[in-house]
Amino acid sequence: MIAERTAPKTVEELAKTLAQCNDAGLAVTIEGGRTLHGMGSQPRRSDLVISTTRLNELLTHEYHDLTCSVRAGMTLAQLGERLAQQGQFVPIDAPLRRKATIGGTMAAGWLGPRRHFYGRSRDFAIGSQVVLADGTIANAGGMVVKNVSGYDMSKLYIGSFGTLGVITQLNFKTLPVPQHRRVLIARLPERSRDRVVTQIAALAVVPAAACCVEGFRKNIEGEDGIDGRLFLLLEGSQALLDRATRDIRSALGRAGVPETIILDSGAPESLERLLDAQIATLGERSMTYRSLGMPETVESRARELRDAANRRELFTDVLFDIMNGDVFVRVSERDSRAFAEKIENCDDELRAIDPRSVIVAGDAPIRASLNAWGAPPESIAKMRGVKERFDPKGTLNPGRFVDGI
Amino acid sequence: MVVQRLIDALGADAVKTQREDLSVYAFDAYSEGQLPTAVVQPSSTRDVAAAVKIAKDCGEPIVARGSGTGLCGGAVPAQGGIVFSFARMNRVLEVDVRNRRARVQPGLINLDLSRAVAGAGLFYAPDPSSQKISTIGGNIGTNAGGPHCLSYGTTVNHVLGLEVVDENGEVFHTSLEENGYDLTGPLVGSEGTLGITCSAWVRLMKTPEAVRVWLAGFSDVDSASAAVSAIIGAGIVPTALEMLDRLALQAVEAAFHSGYPTDAGAVLLIEGAGFEDDLNAYESEIAVLVRECGALSWRSARSEQEREALWAGRKGALGATGRIAPNYYIQDVVVPRTKLPNALRAVEAACDARDIKVANVFHAGDGNLHPLLMYDRSDKKQVGAVIDAGNEILQVAVDLGGTISGEHGIGYEKRGTLTRIFTTEDLATMARVRDVFDPKRRLNPEKIFPAGVGCAEVR
Predict the structure, then answer these.
(1) Which residue of A44, B157, B401, B418 has the smallest Cβ count within 10 Å?
(2) Does 3.30.465.10 match the CATH number of domain A5-176?
(3) Rounded to an integer, what distance in angstroms lies between the CA atom of residue A360 and that of residue A213?
């Protein structure tokens, strides 16, 4: 008999279980560290949960080649530690890295604040192995950094929320760990925000991450009263950090921001807290939306989303990414009942500003009644075609993805 | 019938049917296919859609084509049909400096894009050696690389979204900023088998403040490839790390007088980009590593002129080999970077055994080999020997844990060898994507997939 929840120890075992479910017409939920379970919609049906957490080895780290191959269930933190032993890393930024698995994070296609600097995590994936709904084990790509042998299937699986297949292995190119890291924090009054964003975006020395934060006081450092603050991460040589710090200070000065705090130790932890905040909930009385868009509009979009929620008398915490254009808005109330009363109208207002914003976190019971993925993407018909061809019986995470896929 | 309908839809000047016109489109830089029924030169996405509908109605295969610089037959019409040339869709439609992106038409010449945005302090990173003539659309089709892919990544890392005409003549859009499946990923590198790109949003990068180019000379390729391993192994990723062997060097110098040492057995062309302070430290670090690997000479190209001369030599290397033999056959394989010495020795052995001269000029930092096998096309025996050797080189790459194409694609020439790296299940899984976008296999038929991998077999 099939158990309600299983964590296969081998890929073959996983493939066998999946094929059985597929034959039996059961719906399967795929799970890694469950850190992003609050993103998007919940599966319509779930007869069995398959967890990848026991498929968690680092298969190879060819550090002279700057490549590695890892099973899906390894956590981001574990992978980071293992690669760091040889002075390398893969730039994958995601919340809760001690719990988050590589497979889950990549299946969710999570986008981090350092991607303008290092590239998207999908661009570091040079090969993959997946198990399809019918139990087929399929490989794509390889262990070399350049490859046009066949379709780039890995990119199709990344960000597919387990609806096309279960990612069981990913091969990555690695990078040398930056020599130095530094965090700069500055108070950021709303009136100077626009100018600051423009100045930061135009810097010659590009910061590894640049975010504006308003609220999230328990999550991200920098006491700001109600002013908001700027979070900058620099990565590279000492010479580069010194030059960047000088440039940033004078740019901020020009924009009317007098003081900058430098944190030379604990920079990785600071980044980690910022990432964790992206999906931090306040129990059943909050909901976090993510809006992607152009860097040019990021400041105004963040302001509009915040003001819309405030008009509906909800509290807001805001985090926006100057370099990539992402906005995270967490809307909340003092208690879950008041929240439940207001969120539906607020949701409408937020979607009027960005119809494709996605709910990335929120435990509120009312969540199911909201359309967590927003308006369907333009090429939804093609996407449905892909789903139909890869998982015709709808076995894998049914309803978990956009527009009910 | 089909021709008249195409003329009615696109105008007579956009449809070519004369034999002498058509024959040009039966080739790419390496292979020959069937004469197409007609060649269309659409001026807009609407034209493309209209022509696709007509071709479909008339049961004609569809082959989209850039400048035809491909080396694997990707753009040749294997079954004739309608060839789509994008010579008239060659504009930069929009440059968005603030968000560092541009929207371009597929027929735009690669280098023209970087030229168009240089004034804004930006550039388009993928730079295949053919960049003076190859198009962005063709580059997207093969996920083209180039020397600077070492640090910037290949074309797929620089495409943000696509406007595509599908096999029914309907337009659809993909974008990395949208929710849903990443269709952009598999479309890039699909060699026109999933749809026809009609415009693309591409990423632009900021021109670095300082660029330096260094040249290290070695007595042989063995020590040069050891230096490549040493540099990469030390965790240094230059913006480019290229190797030229003796024969390539001599040909390049004779043609371009770029300033390469002709007495060296191999040179590494190394580029670093960033900031002056950083580059100083970088330069001394690399200089030490290459000396430890036995470098006989070390030069830093001081002026922009000097740098450009070196790059011009590198990028013109293929043409320069015309001095050695009337024809060359270029192979494109990738091995893990530490396997370069083994791979180069095996390439040499494969060529020596058949009495073939081989020049190597390639993306060493990526482990992407490009052996140029010299031959005379009029000599049948030489042709056979070169094909044999090429085949052996493919196997060498596979045996060393590498792959059979790094940036040129699979096309027609390599489709029979895809089974060396993928199982039937792997290929059938890729074919599922094809089933969705091109169930009847009318888009660039007989490409990428080995004969026999089709929906019938999967089902």
Answers:
(1) A44
(2) yes
(3) 17
Residue B237 to residue A378, Cβ atoms within 8 A: no
Q: Tell me the average pLDDT of chain B.
A: 94
Q: Which residues contact A36 (CB under 8 A, 6 or more apart)?
A: A94, A95, A100, A104, A105, A108, A110, A279, A360
B364 touches chain A (CB under 8 A): no
Domain B325-410 has CATH 3.30.70.2740: yes
Of A142, A377, A385, the CB nearest to B179: A377
Would you call B406 and A109 a contact, using CB atoms and an 8 Å cutoff?
no
Interface confidence, given as ipTM, is: 0.96
Whether A3 shows a pLDDT value over 80: the answer reads no
B-contacting residues of A 51-80, CB under 8 Å?
Answer: 62-67
| Topology of the domain comprising A278-369 | Alpha-Beta Plaits (3.30.70)
Model's pTM, two decimal places?
0.96
Judging contacts by C-beta atoms under 8 Å, the chain B residues touching residue A373 are: 179
| Rounded average pLDDT over B335-363 | 95
Q: Over 90: is that where the pLDDT of B457 sits? A: no
* Range B208-321 has CATH code 3.30.70.2190: yes
The whole-angstrom separation of Cα A81 and Cα A88 is 9
Q: Residue B78 carries which DSSP code?
A: B
B294 min Cα distance to partner chain A (Å): 19
Residue A226 predicted with pLDDT over 80: no
Q: Residue A86's closest CA among B235, B150, B232?
A: B235
Beta carbons within 8 Å of B309's beta carbon, 6+ residues apart: B256, B257, B258, B259
Lookup: tokens for B37: 């029924």
Max CA distance (Å), chain A: 69
What is the distance, to the nearest Å, from the Cα of residue A386 to the centroid of all Cα atoms in its chain?
23
Comparing CA positions, the residue from A295, A297, A301, A299 lying closest to residue A194 is: A299
Q: Which residues of A19-37 are buried (b: 16+ CB within 10 A; e: fewer)?
A: bebbeeebbbbbbbbebbb
Q: Which segments within B343-429 are labelled E, that is strand? A: 358-362, 368-369, 371-375
Sort out which chain A residues have CB atoms less than 8 A from B153's CB and list them: 119, 123
* Cβ–Cβ gap A87/B235 under 8 Å: yes
DSSP per residue, A161-201: TTSSEEEEEEEEE-EEPPSEEEEEEEE--HHHHHHHHHHHH
Mean pLDDT of A206-220: 92
* B403 chain-A contacts, CB cut-off 8 A: 142, 144, 147, 149
Class of domain B2-85: alpha beta
Lowest model confidence (mean pLDDT) among A196-205, A216-225, A286-295, A351-360: A216-225
Domain B92-206, architecture per CATH: 2-Layer Sandwich (3.30)
Any residues with CB less than 8 A from the CB of B297 and at least 6 apart, and which?
A: B215, B216, B217, B261, B264
pLDDT given at position B300: 94
Contacts with A343 (C-beta within 8 Å, 6 or more apart), sequence order: A287, A314, A331, A364, A366, A370
Range(s) of chain A covered by CATH 3.30.70.2190: 180-276
Q: Tell me which chain A residue has its CA closest to the CA of residue B282.
A: A237
d(CA A148, CA B407): 6
Residue of A nearest to B186 (CA): A152
Cβ–Cβ contact A356 with B under 8 A: yes
Q: Are residues A64 and B337, on separate chains, in Cβ contact within 8 Å?
A: yes
Q: What percent of chain B has pLDDT over 70?
A: 98
The residue of chain B nearest to residue A120, with distances taken between CA atoms, is B157
B95 touches chain A (CB under 8 A): no
